[in-house]
Amino acid sequence: QVQLVESGGGLVQPGGSLRLSCAASGIIFRLYTMYWYRQVPEKQRELVAAITSGGSTNYADSVKGRFTISRDNAKNTVYLQMNSLKPDDTAVYYCNAHTPNLSFWGQGTQVTVSS
Fold it and tell me: In this predicted model, what pLDDT tens digit does every residue of 1-52 receive, in sequence order?
């Protein structure tokens, strides 16, 4: 049974930081490209960051220089370090594990940036 479990969301003030984690089980984690997406009500899910099995990373323009994606294959976990958070970063954040033939999603974790 495949499971992706996100954690680390919460309420933070503008300018603050959060670190999201996504722990995977039931997959050969090291083979998967891992993604972080986010979604706000009535909008499409937006790609935030990606990290390949080889460690190459990519970011949405809106988060470049503020967010960092990383992975620990020994722990089957992908992280999203979010710094200098803005109210526009408020969303439910989802992790996704992807290969050309398979794709799995976590349940999401809420991030709210507000004073």
Answer: 999 999 999 999 999 999 999 999 999 999 999 999 999 999 999 999 999 9
- Tokens coding 47: 């790609």
Residue 32 and residue 16: Cα distance in Å, rounded? 30
Q: Tokens 């089980």 map to which residue?
A: 25
32 contacts 99 by C-beta, under 8 angstroms: yes
Q: Is 34 left (phi over 0), alpha (psi -120 to 50) or beta?
A: beta
In angstroms, the Cα distances linking 48 to 10, 34, 61, 69, 106 are 18, 11, 9, 9, 15
In angstroms, the CA 45 to CA 91 distance is 10
